[in-house]
Amino acid sequence: MEVRNLDISIDLNRTFFIIANALDCIGVDDENHGHRVGFIAYHLAKKLQWDEFECQFAFYMGLIHDCGVKEKRNLHRLLESMAPNDVEQHCVRAYKLLTQCSPLSSFASPIRYHHTPWNELEKLSLPDAEKRLAALIFLCDRIDYLRTVFEHDEFGNLEKLSRQKIINEISKYRGSLFKPEFVDEVEPILRADYVWFSLSSEHIELFSRQLPDCGINSSSFSLNDVVSIAQFLASIVDAKSEFTYLHSVKVAELAVFLSDKLGASLELQKALYLAGLTHDLGKLHTPDAILHKRGSLTSSEYLCIQRHVVDSFYFMNGIFEHSIISQWAGNHHERLDGSGYPRGLTASELDTPSRIMAIADMFQALTQQRPYREQMDLKSALTTLRMEVEKGKLDPTVFKILEENAEEAYSISTSECDMCPVSQ
Asked: In this protein, which residues make up the domain named HD-GYP (predicted)?
């Protein structure tokens, strides 16, 4: 099974923004919080005369600092006060997720402590650099919280008086919540029109592309590193919908299993694993009420569900810009007879990996317990897929492999998660 354009190099800058955008979908009422925290953190770090690498590290840390948020109510707690209660859970979860993702593991410890008051943080046995980063993000996070509290004018701009109120409020916590030096140095930043007028996501993403090269985005990643980033992204889906997350992991495992039986190379198997893990990222944009609805969907709700495929494609294309992987992820609802969606592709336009994805996705969906329906047994699932093959919708060769190895495939589909089954 030969495939061209199997480039799985990643654009790390765009990946950070995709993570930030994905976090916005979990239930954040105030979108682009990570963008703003990162932008303010970069400018405060520059004011503190940190070197460029540290400044950019603070910027990207700000983008992803809330990656441990699991539920909407956790986010609401973060917007209740300057020192909200019960924030430990999302900090610990972020730490665990980041330590498991090798390319992002250096962010784990400072993000673990990004809600720790300075008078506690300074006493911890941590490297000074990690303390500084955690303290910086905590201050910038609370500045963005205060931005939501104080008055904006009729044009949506933060009033001059409100900027002063933010300065006054953070000054109250100088030395207790916040590192004194940071409070002193952030004041001129908070008075600057440039900062407040630059806080749109579009401006911040453009700003990031103009940053000087300091090595953060030019790192060389192994194939296993890229897989770990995909696993990290899949874990964000878990915060919105556990069954969607489990489905993605299992589709990835089934895609590896089927492609291996078809004689695919190890590299191609890992590429399919990436496509499987991320093929439903677009469901982050799907409203929870539709995603978890019990009973039939209305025509408009079904249309909303169908949109997830295109959203998944653009999520993936942002990370793997020059790779065919995003196409495989986006083709999992296409059918050989042209009856699928979103593009209505036909057999001549669907390569073998796309055909594998279609069968892996459908088989796993049928055999998975969902909140709104029972799972199918193996015999019923195979019967359903066979009918689709006979109608000319699914690939007979891939289905034959599934049928010949049905018990093992069913075990993969219904067992506990086994991240990255491809040999290292």
From this structure: 222-418
